[in-house]
Amino acid sequence: MEFWQSVFFKLENREVICSIIKNTNDRENFRILLRDINVMLSVCLSSKSGVNIEKLRQLGIDLMSHLRTKFLASNGNAWILINPSLHSMCAHSWQLYQICSSSISVYSEQAQEHWNKFVASFKSGVGARARQHSVKVNLLDIFSRMLIMTHPVVATKHREIKCSVCNDLGHTARSKIHANSYGPYDEDQSLINDCYL
Prior knowledge:
Elements: H1 3-8, H2 11-19, H3 24-45, H4 53-70, H5 84-99, H6 110-123, H7 135-150, H8 152-155, H9 186-194
C-alpha cells in the first residue's frame, strides 16, 4: 500500500474522521464509503494479477449507488459531490482490467508525479543543479540529470529499505511480515482478497 493509503485509510483514522459526523446514519454510510474506496484503491493500485473483473465491477456499482442514494439532503439532492476521477476509478476500472492483460497500476501517474520534486530541485533555488543562463540550457541540464538518474547502473543503486516496526533492512512496515500489526484491517483485507481469483 502507498503512504496515503496506510495513513488516511487506516481503520482508526477513518473512525476519527467519521466521528466528526453527528448524524449516525451519515456516519455509518461515510464509514462504509471510506472502506469501499480503500478496497477499490488497493485493488487498482496493486501490481497483483488475477483480478476478478465481475467482483470489481460489482464493487464499483455498489460504491457508486451508495454515493448516489445514501448521501441525500432533505430536498432529495446529494450533499456529497463525486469527483470525476473517483467516478472513473469506481465505475470504469473493471473495463480497464478487461482491456489490459496486466495490472492497471502501470498506467498510473505516480511515476510522473514522482519526478516533480527532482525537477524542482534541479531547476532553481539554493541547491539548483541546472544552469540559469537561459531556459534552453536550464531544460537541457534538467533532462541530462533525469537521464543520468534513469541509467540502468544508477537506477540499480536503490536506497536500503528499513522497517519502522522492527528496524530490519529489506522490508517495510506495510509488508506481509507485519500484516497483523495494523490491527483491525481484517474486514478490508477480506474484501480486497475477494476481488482476486
